[in-house]
Amino acid sequence: MIINEKKTTLITGSVIFILSSMIYLMTVAHTTLFWDCGEFITTSYILGIPHPPGAPFYLMLGRLFSMIPFADDIGLRVNLISVFSSSATVLFLYLISARLIRNWRGEAKDNYDLLIIHASSAVGALTFAFTYTFWSSAVEAEVCGLKNIKILILQNICF
């Protein structure tokens, strides 16, 4: 009996999103960091203009996060944008790689094929989630998480 593939995708994707979110939440910066983070936090709070190219969507989203009173420090509130957008990026990477493997190998004929598709996609997505460069931008106020998720959503739509 073959396990339902949609259910497997939903469960595995949920586990990947929750796991990466928990790890990022445990290591998120609780205030401002060096370089662009302080600038993005400040300009999000006052709706100012940071250095070019500006990132207006990030600033408006940062203003919304800075108004929600779930933490004392505004820096932490704005840093959480990167946490959740990076976790969503990892989720979309898993979904895209599972679809690519399914297209390359064909539909799953048995549970072994299902395991190959989803386990390899999950390992790839979690490996990417915990690389140094991605992790360091996932726990601070940077635009990278939103840029990555935008690219992956567009790629997912194009498939």
Report on the architecture of this protein.
The protein contains 7 helices and no strands. Helix 2 (36-46) packs across helix 4 (74-105), helix 3 crosses helix 4 and helix 4 (74-105) packs antiparallel against helix 5. 75% of the residues lie in helices and 0% in strands. It is an all-alpha fold and 159 residues long.
Q: Strand share of the residues? A: under 5%
Give start-end ranges of low-pLDDT stretches: none
Radius of gyration: 18 Å
> How many helix segments?
7
The general outline is elongated
Topology (elements, then pairings):
Layout: H1 5-27, H2 36-46, H3 56-67, H4 74-105, H5 111-129, H6 132-138, H7 144-158
Helix pairs in contact: 1-4, 1-5, 2-3, 2-4, 3-4, 4-5, 4-6, 4-7
Task: Summarize this entry quickly.
By secondary structure, the protein is mainly α. It is 75% helix and 0% strand.
Please name the defining characteristics of this protein.
75% helix; 0% strand; elongated; mainly alpha; 159 residues
